[in-house]
Fold this sequence. Notes:
It contains 14 helices and no strands. The protein is mainly alpha-helical.
Amino acid sequence: MESGAQLPLVVCSLYAMLVSTVIASVGDRSWSFNKCLQDCRTVNCTSPELFVGRQPVYLRVLGWDCVAECQYVCMWKTVDDFEKDGGNVPQFYGKWPFVRVLGVQEPASAVFSVLNLLSHVAMLMYFRARVPSAAPLFLVWHFYSLSNVNAWLWSTVFHVRDTNFTEMMDYFSAIFMVLTSLFAVCVRVPAAQHRRRVGCCAGAVLLCFFIYHVHYLAFVSFDYNYNMKANVIAGLLNAAGWVWWSWRVRKRQRYVWKAVVSIVWLSTMLLLELLDFPPLGWTLDAHSLWHLGTILIPVLWYRFLVADCLYEVDHSAGDLPKTKLN
């Protein structure tokens, strides 16, 4: 547990490195790419009806219009040109080139996002089967779980097809998930008699910030650095809150090691984001491995939630209807 007390500093340093990293899109700025894109659009995009008629149904369903199709084709032509000249694999629009599968733009990340979603759904069912509905924070943890399911749903959609809309929804859902976890910390840490007041205050502040965050990104500036910094601050407060609380109650609530291990696990997986390398087999990159590494975290985290809720039930049994505890 002593090492866990240093976790916020480690996470802070890691996030600072991520925020300061600037992703260069050499590929989409290259002459080869832009010349190919111009030629492709001139030849293929002057008659949208003809293009749609030649396109498979699954590509049309996923929104691969003529311009997007030209970008995909020219991306691979540019990659070939770079490799022939002995250059490194370039990024395009801030992302590595991926081989799409049945129109899915980033197949590995999409599959792993689905598995993360299913992990939360399965563990929510595990939680519901073991925790009485009268338990303190029963509804809070349902709200937390559903925010995670929503975030992984939009992560899946975004990795299936990267558009301005799916990217915004992925960002908005991710920050909402982090803020929901922060709200849960604010409600869990205080004594039971203070939770309603603290929860209302924290909920109001976090909801106002979320509304501001969405408005700023959607209508003022879709600022990647600002979005990252907002997630950094909320994530650090969340991690620090859980580690501090776990350290404080560690002697009487020995199950809190599950919470600390979950946080350390999550932070360790984040290190994968620093290993920015071209995708293996044009499919598996560091970001997809980050999604792979988080699939089993809910298994441990929800076991902590069950243990914590049952602990609170045991210590407030006199205040709960006896029928609810059966």
